[in-house]
Amino acid sequence: MSRRGSATVETALALPALLAVAAVALWGVAAATVRLTCVDAVHTGARAAARGEPPDRVRARILNAAPPNSTVTLTHTPDTTRITLTTTYPPPARLPLPPLTFTLTAEALTEPPPLPPPPTPTPPTHPPTTPDNPQAPTPRPPTPRATPPNPPPALPAQPTSPARPTRPNRQHRRSP
Questions:
Q1: pLDDT tens-digit profile of 161-173?
Q2: Given pLDDT bands bounded at 50, 70 and 90, which one contains residue 32?
Q3: Sheet of 80-89: strands edge to edge?
């Protein structure tokens, strides 16, 4: 029995299986990327809903960030918004695998709308005092202001020590 060409036959039989495994692995990585894209899209919509944006704008933000052919369902109540994103990712061509369907859900509490600014108070207007109108209020004299307390007495000056005289740098020479 001859063994010539057996390596070629084994490679020819194993290569399609290796390519199928590599294709499934790459499909899995691409599917994980699609799922992460869906997670980001749902989170984007949840943040927009929490800010109180209208549902049409929330849906547009989600579809803008989601993969193509995705569907979005919004359930809006006064307090919360529930977002459901569904997308399907098909397998690579010629692989007998079912398509993957991702369904992600997020719920966001809606923040209350900002309060309107308080009205600006208007000072009361009084009619001028005239001899004909004795009821008009008279202006109050200014109230005397309290005088600040006396500052504490200054501390006596501390005696300073005279500066030390500096010695000249003497280098000692060694005799050889």
A1: 555 555 555 565 5
A2: very high
A3: 71-76, 80-89, 100-109
Region for residue 5 given its phi and psi (left: phi exceeds 0; alpha: psi -120 to 50; beta: otherwise): left
The Cα angle at residue 166 between residues 161 and 167, in degrees rounded to 5: 145
Q: Which two tokens stand for residue 107?
A: 């719920």
User: For residues 74 and 103, is the Cβ–Cβ distance under 8 A?
Assistant: no
> Among candidates 45, 115, 52, 109, which has minimal Cα distance to 83?
45
Amino acid at position 151, single letter? P
Coil vs helix vs strand at 129: coil
Total count of residues recorded for the chain: 176
pLDDT score recorded for residue 50:
87
Mean pLDDT over all residues of the chain?
79
pTM exceeds cut of 0.85: no
How sure is the predictor about 120, in pLDDT bands with cuts at 50, 70 and 90? Answer: confident
Q: What is the rounded CA–CA span in Å between residue 69 and residue 88? A: 8
DSSP string, 61-76: HHHHHSPTT-EEEEEE
Lowest-confidence segment of 52-66, 91-105, 120-134 by average pLDDT? 120-134
Which one-letter amino acid corresponds to residue 87? T
- Give CA separation, 101 vs 38, 40, 105, 133, in Å: 11, 16, 13, 85
